[in-house]
Amino acid sequence: MLNNLEEDKLKLKEILNKVVEESLVFFGELDSLPAAKINDTLNYDTHLPIEGTGTIHVLERFLSIHAKQLSGSAGPRYLGFVTGGATPASIAGDWLVSVFDQNVTSIEDSAAGLLELETISMLRELFKLPSSFSGTFVSGATMANFVGLAQARQWAAHKHGIDISQQGMYHLPPVKVISGAPHSSIYKALSMLGMGRKNLHLIPCLPDREAVDIEKLRNFLEENKHTPCIVVANAGTVNTVDYDDLETIGQLQQDYSFWLHIDAAFGGFAACSEQFQHLVKGMESADSITIDAHKWLNVPYDSAMQFTKHQNLQVEVFQNNAAYLGNAIEHPEFVHLTPENSRRFRALPVWFTLHAYGRLGCKQIVERNVEMAQAFTKKITQSSHFKLLAPTRLNVVCFTVVHKDEGVASFEEIKQFLDKLTEDGRVFMTPTIYHGTPAIRAAFSNWRTSAADVNIIWEALCNVYNRI
């Protein structure tokens, strides 16, 4: 009697055809699926089977029980966080990642590594970065920020005559990290790097902005002129997609010694559009850059890129010391460039996307999402139920709920409103606080979102408002 593995091998075509069939059902229903699901209880069978039942039976079990509890986050009205969908080209590439199952640690045993280098080169061109930047794929913006700040820490330590990768941090003075409105992943990266969340110095932002006050930044650098600092600049904040003056910050490097890390997780895609590329002017002055692919490029999770001008420092930090992995200094393979030794073939879905849609396709996604955000903003400004809290610069609308007595909602009331909106099923949004005011973020990041979706979103918001 055949065991399950051998039987599945013989049924591979049937299995894959069934997956394709169910995938088409999912995409056909995507527009009508609830944008998010609230699962109050976990009703799972946690017992490990002794023999197993084979893939066809497992697929049927998944579809009948668990698939029904998954959200429509890949759809056009999931506006939480900054979540892209997955384009057809990226799905094709992502499926093939699993089929070919390449461990992209080097360029020596397959073409996968060379394809990653080719993809990074195309991305450099997309973001208008000079060839002085090298790049590698990582799992997301958090890991890209970690890789960039790890290099920055190594740079700062060298200024003190210390090689952290060899000697550790025990004799290193606290490294000053400064930013105006850092993303939460910056704090997380500092914690993982042993630099500490509390050692991030917040520089005041401009009035009613999330962009750092350049003069106050200059004053801080002047006061710490003889101390190596790390400046974390924003190219698109999560609440209002605000941008630091990257060009002017870059020019400050002529007078002060600091590492410039730019968090451009989704805001870097402004470079795709002539209409918005002025926002990232000066990004090329960075020492390291974070950009996500699973946000505005609309490829499947997980996928992001880190770019650097200092690959030598990157190798110092992440070099793998196994003798059989070659010379990391002269020929740094991917295994020497990121925390991962084993690496998924993340470049392939991006390669498919860039070749399938080109620069104009990326531009179209960005400009269309911005157009939808502006259409939604117009509805907000014309309503007495909601209040816009900041200008809509790109694809994120920051607003709040207004009571019938004209007072704004509390944070708890915002959460209750959003819970009811999630229960409605037509749209999903996330809460935030903007300059002390409890608020809601609507992030338009999905290639599918249309004007018809904006009307559905607005109808859902008004229906929920009228029920509270």
From TrEMBL:
GO biological process: amino acid metabolic process; carboxylic acid metabolic process
InterPro entries with a match to the protein in the record: Aromatic_deC (IPR010977), PyrdxlP-dep_de-COase (IPR002129), PyrdxlP-dep_Trfase (IPR015424), PyrdxlP-dep_Trfase_major (IPR015421), PyrdxlP-dep_Trfase_small (IPR015422)
Transferase in keyword set: yes
Keyword terms, alphabetized: Aminotransferase, Decarboxylase, Lyase, Pyridoxal phosphate, Transferase
Cross-referenced Pfam families: Pyridoxal_deC (PF00282)
Keyword field contains S-adenosyl-L-methionine: no
Cofactor(s) needed by this chain: pyridoxal 5'-phosphate
Gene3D superfamilies: Aspartate Aminotransferase, domain 1 (3.90.1150.10), Type I PLP-dependent aspartate aminotransferase-like (Major domain) (3.40.640.10)
Single GO term (MF): pyridoxal phosphate binding
Family assignment from sequence similarity: Belongs to the group II decarboxylase family.
Name used for this protein in its record: Aspartate aminotransferase family protein
